[in-house]
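Q: what sequence does this backbone want?
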C-alpha cells in the first residue's frame, strides 16, 4: 500500500467516525420526540450556548469553509470582506432586536413555525399566509439543501477520486438519517458539536497554511504583489491580473447580505426555541464573537492559499475551482505523516459539519411547513401527533430526494447559497420586521410584501441584473426594499378591511412590547 493510499484511508476513517457519530446522535434523540412541537422546536428547551452555536452553525454552512475562502482566493479581499462585514452586522442586529421579541411573541401565540407565527399574528382565518409562507420555504430551501449536498459531493470526489454523484448521495443519506430520526434536538445538539469541529478546522488550516507559505511575511508579500488583492475598495481580476474599482453602490449591495438574517427560518426558529429568553443576551455575545472570528479566519485562508500557490506548496487552482482551496491544504497536511493525516480528516469533517449543520435545520424547517402549515393549518386535516411525526419524517426524506436530484450537477456553493439567501431575506425579512415592530401591519400587507419581495428576487436576478451597470447589484437589496415598501403601503390601504381584528391585534402587540 502506498503512502498516499494509507493517508487517504486515515482521512476516510476520521470522517467515517464523524458520520457514524451523527447517526448515533439521531438515534439517541429519536425517543425524545413525543410531539411535532418537540420534533420541530425541541419543546423550547435549548440552553444559551446551544442556541447561539446552533443558530450560527446552521447559518454559516459549507459557505464558510468552501465559499468564503474561495471568493477571497479568486478575487482578493473586497467581495469577501464586505460580505462578511454585512453578515456580521446583520447577525448582531438580528440577535439584538429580533430574537427576544419573536421568542416572546411566538410563545404567546403558541406558534412553532414561522408560517404559523405569521398566520396567528394577523388572525388569518383562511390561512393564506401559512400557505404562501410554506411554499416560499419549500421553493428556496430545496436549492439551499442541494448546495449542502453539493459541497459533500465536491469534498469526497476531490479527495478520493470517487464519482461525484455517489459521494453526494452517501453524504445526503447520512444527513437525512439523523435528521429524520432525531428532529430539532438532534439537529441543534449536532450543530453545537459541528461548530466546535468547524472552529478546529479553521484554526488548524490557517496555522498550517501560513507555515507552508513561508510565514506571515511571505503571505503579506504575495498578497501585496497582486493589484487590488488587499484593498477593500478595489477588486482583483484573476483573468487579467488587474484591479477594478469597488464603487459605494457595489459595497452597499455586497453588505446587503446582512439583510437576509431577518428572514432565515432556520435561524429564527433557534430564537423561538431557547428555554429562557433572559439568556438571549449571552447567546448574542457568543454568536456574534464566533461569527466575526470565523469569517475573518475563513477569509485569511483564501489569502494564505494564494501565497501557498505562489511558492509552490500546492498546485495551481483554476478560478472556477477556488472553493476547493481548504481541501487542497488538508491534502497537503495529510501527506506530512500519519498523525497529521488524522488531523486532516478532522479538518475535512469540519466541512461536513458546516454542511450538515445547515442542511439538517433547513430540512426540518421545510418539513414543518408541509405537515404543520399545509396539512394541518391550510388544508385543516385532523391528524394525531403520532401520524404527524410519521408524515414529518417522510417529508424530510422526500425533500431530501428532491434536493439530491437538484444537486446531481456540480456547481458553485457560493452562487447557490446567495440565491436562496436572497429569496428568504426578501420574502420573509420585511414581513418579519413589520410583524414584530409595527402594530398597524395587516395580513394583506404581509401577504403582498412576501409575494413582491420573493418575486423581485427572480425578476432582478434574471431580467434586471443582466442589464449591467447600476443594475448589477445583489438581488436581495432591491427585493428587500420593495418587500417592505409594499408591506407598509398595502397595510395602510387595507386597515378597514381587517378592522374587526384590529383592536385585538393591537392590544396584543402592546402587551408584548410592554413586557420588554
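A:
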Amino acid at each position: 500500500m502506498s503512502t498516499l493510499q494509507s493517508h487517504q484511508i486515515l482521512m476516510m476513517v476520521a470522517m467515517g467516525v464523524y458520520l457514524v457519530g451523527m447517526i448515533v446522535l439521531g438515534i439517541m434523540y429519536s425517543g425524545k420526540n413525543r410531539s411535532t412541537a418537540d420534533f420541530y422546536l425541541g419543546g423550547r428547551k435549548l440552553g444559551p450556548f446551544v442556541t447561539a452555536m446552533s443558530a450560527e452553525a446552521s447559518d454559516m454552512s459549507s459557505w464558510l469553509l468552501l465559499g468564503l475562502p474561495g471568493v477571497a482566493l479568486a478575487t482578493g479581499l473586497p467581495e469577501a470582506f464586505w460580505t462578511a462585514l454585512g453578515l456580521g452586522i446583520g447577525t448582531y442586529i438580528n440577535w439584538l432586536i429580533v430574537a427576544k421579541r419573536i421568542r416572546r411573541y411566538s410563545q404567546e401565540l403558541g406558534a412553532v413555525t414561522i408560517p404559523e407565527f405569521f398566520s396567528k399574528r394577523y388572525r388569518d382565518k383562511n390561512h393564506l399566509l401559512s400557505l404562501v409562507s410554506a411554499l416560499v420555504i419549500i421553493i428556496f430551501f430545496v436549492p439551499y439543501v442541494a448546495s449542502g449536498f453539493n459541497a459533500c459531493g465536491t469534498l469526497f470526489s476531490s479527495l478520493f477520486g470517487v464519482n461525484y454523484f455517489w459521494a453526494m448521495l452517501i453524504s445526503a443519506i447520512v444527513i437525512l438519517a439523523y435528521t429524520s430520526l432525531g428532529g430539532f434536538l438532534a439537529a441543534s445538539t449536532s450543530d453545537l458539536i459541528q461548530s466546535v469541529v468547524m472552529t478546529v478546522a479553521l484554526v488548524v488550516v490557517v496555522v498550517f497554511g501560513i507555515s507552508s507559505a513561508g510565514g506571515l511575511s511571505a503571505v503579506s508579500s504575495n498578497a501585496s504583489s497582486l493589484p487590488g488583492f488587499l484593498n477593500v475598495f478595489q477588486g482583483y481580476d484573476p483573468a487579467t491580473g488587474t484591479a477594478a474599482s469597488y464603487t459605494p453602490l457595489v459595497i452597499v449591495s455586497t453588505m446587503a447580505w446582512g439583510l437576509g438574517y431577518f428572514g432565515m427560518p432556520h435561524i429564527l426558529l433557534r430564537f423561538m426555541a431557547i428555554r429562557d429568553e433572559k439568556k438571549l443576551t449571552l447567546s448574542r455575545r457568543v454568536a456574534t464573537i464566533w461569527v466575526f472570528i470565523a469569517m475573518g479566519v475563513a477569509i485569511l485562508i483564501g489569502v494564505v492559499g494564494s501565497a501557498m500557490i505562489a511558492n509552490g506548496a500546492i498546485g495551481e487552482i483554476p478560478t472556477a475551482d477556488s472553493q476547493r482551496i481548504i481541501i487542497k491544504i488538508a491534502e497537503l497536511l495529510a501527506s506530512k505523516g500519519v498523525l497529521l493525516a488524522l488531523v486532516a480528516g478532522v479538518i475535512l469533517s469540519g466541512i461536513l459539519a458546516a454542511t450538515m449543520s445547515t442542511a439538517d435545520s433547513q430540512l426540518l424547517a421545510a418539513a414543518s411547513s408541509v405537515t404543520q402549515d399545509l396539512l394541518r393549518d391550510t388544508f385543516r386535516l385532523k391528524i394525531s401527533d403520532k401520524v404527524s411525526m410519521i408524515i414529518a419524517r417522510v417529508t424530510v426524506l422526500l425533500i431530501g430526494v428532491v434536493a439530491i436530484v437538484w444537486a446531481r450537477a456540480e456547481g458553485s456553493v457560493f452562487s447557490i447559497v446567495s440565491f436562496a439567501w436572497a429569496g428568504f431575506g426578501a420574502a420573509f425579512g420585511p414581513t418579519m420586521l413589520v410583524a414584530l415592530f409595527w402594530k398597524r401591519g395587516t395580513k394583506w400587507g404581509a401577504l403582498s410584501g412576501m409575494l413582491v419581495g420573493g418575486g423581485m428576487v427572480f425578476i432582478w436576478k434574471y431580467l434586471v441584473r443582466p442589464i449591467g451597470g447600476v443594475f448589477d447589484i445583489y438581488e436581495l437589496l432591491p427585493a428587500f426594499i420593495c418587500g417592505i415598501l409594499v408591506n407598509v403601503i398595502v397595510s395602510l390601504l387595507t386597515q378597514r378591511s381587517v378592522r374587526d381584528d384590529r383592536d385585538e391585534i393591537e392590544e396584543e402587540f402592546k402587551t408584548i412590547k410592554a413586557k420588554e
